[in-house]
Amino acid sequence: MAGGKETPRQKMIGMMYLVLTALLALNVSKEILDAFITINNGLETTMVTFDGKLGGQYGAFNASYNENKEKYGAAWAQAQELRTKANEIVSHIDLIKAKTIAETEGLTIEDVLAKNESTGKDTVLDLKYVSSKDNYDVNTNIMIGAEPDKPLDTDNPDGNNYRAVVLKQELIDFGNELKQMAKGNPTLVNSLDSLFTYPEKVKDASGTTTNWESLNFFHVPLAATTTLLSKLQADVRNAESDVLGHLFADVEAASYKFTQLAPVVIPEKTYILEGDSFRAKVFLAAYDNTNLPAIDLGPEGLELDSASLSLPEGQGSPVKVGADGFGRVSLPARGIGDKHWEGIIKFRNPATKAEEPYKFIVDYEVAKPSLVVSPTKMNVLYRGIDNPVEISVPGIPQDALTATISNGTLSKKPDGSYIAKVKKGSEAIVRVSAEVQGKKKSMGEFKFRLKSVPDPVAKFAGKTAVDNTVKKAELTAALGVIADLKDFVFDLNYPIRSFDIAVTNGADVKILSSTSNRLTAQQKELLRETRRNQTVSVENIKATAPDGTIRKLAGITLRIL
């Protein structure tokens, strides 16, 4: 039989077995049988060595599994299955050895098969204590039957099966299961294929064609039969050790290896409001400075296909990765609003050597630079008009803000600014809150003084209450009276609703009224009839304020030049 990986000692024992079986075929003297004792003992010693090695392998595997069940779970389950199947075959072969020796020597299986007190495992009676080592009738009947060309597969009357046909199929099935476990390791698969392949037709020493079962167990002395069975057990343990090593190494090979550690802090935000908390993820990042990742960043707004995890041709921008394993991205802050970028990090898989892609997302918001200047003596809101108010909190988007005002109303415009309308009273307070981390948090308050809009100044013929004279031409060119809010912060309209024109002529005073802002025809005629040094007065001037109230404005008295 071909073998898997064997030590020099195993190879020597296997060669001795082949030589001795050849000598048996040549009818060499019976003393050769005693040599099988040496070979069998060597194989038994090899299996003890394997048991120790396997114990260490399973122990290390179990320790790794207990430390990381997710990583080693699937492989450990296969290892448990491997151990169970290997133990079943080894125990079955022990039972066959015990049966053939017991029947030959006239003993019971219990007499031959005993438990080793030091190892706790079943052991078969040493061949040196067997007197009929050259007997072949009993074991031939047990394992093959009477006809070498038709080896039997039936159970023994005691309910067990000791047939070579059944044993061979068990070994083939075991080999096939091991090859499935060793997939991905062609060298090991080939070794297992060789170890557990048993040809249907073989030739014996005389050149006669027969089957594997009869070649090895038909009319073969008990000593040789027992030794071959021990050899099969050694093959099973050898294969078990190799496959177990592969299962463990396969998990390790698929593990990413890192050479360096670096502390990383990822804050939720770097702009913190007073009273809030700084929150960050702190962890150790691992990287391999001999296997740095490749990073590509897509164009702004591009959403990657989650299935392919690849950037469209020509749309990726490579990101330089430093020796510390970090790629550093610098993105332009162009345009106000939310920004979204996606990219790919590729890292070589240690097992497949293929580059595996991982998607990353960068989201941020671009805001205008905020300048806050507070003229503390001019914090005024005017009654009766729309007062525009800008409200912002650095670091918090507008849609997260809520503002209210006492003694009035606040309405939000589409551009994010507010209109304040205030009522009577001396002050109003604007209170602002923001939604931060899903909770409403007060951002503070601002106090405003409330004032009425000042009265406008009436103008007639380009003159106001502070003027004293007017030219006749200016007087006759006048169209009416207007209200002017000079140097006021708001561009407000005060329509004139009525006024009187009074002209003195000696002791006489003639008064004409208008119910609009324009001169009536009678008033115009009266003004054309005036003469030099006469006095013209504009009196009882009334205007409508933006809040609907009627304001009486200061009159104008002019002497005609």
Structure notes:
The chain is of the alpha+beta class. The chain has four domains: 8-253, no CATH class; 260-366, no CATH class; 380-452, Immunoglobulin-like; 457-560, Sandwich (Immunoglobulin-like). It is 33% helix and 27% strand. The protein has helices at residues 8-25, 31-67, 69-105, 109-112, 137-143, 164-181, 186-195, 212-217, 222-253, 472-477, 521-528, and strands spanning 113-115, 122-124, 202-203, 209-210, 260-267, 280-287, 294-297, 317-319, 337-348, 355-366, 380-383, 387-389, 401-405, 408-412, 418-422, 427-436, 439-452, 457-460, 469-470, 481-484, 496-505, 508-514, 535-544, 550-553, 556-560. The strands form eight sheets. Strands 19, 21, 22, 23, 24 and 25 form a six-stranded mixed beta sheet that branches. A four-stranded antiparallel beta sheet has the order 8-7-9-10, with no helix packed on it. Strands 11-17-16-13 form a four-stranded mixed beta sheet, with no helix packed on it. Strand 3 and strand 4 form a beta hairpin. Helix 3 packs across helix 5 (137-143) and helix 6 packs parallel to helix 9. It starts with 7 loop residues before the first helix and ends with a strand. The mean pLDDT is 85.
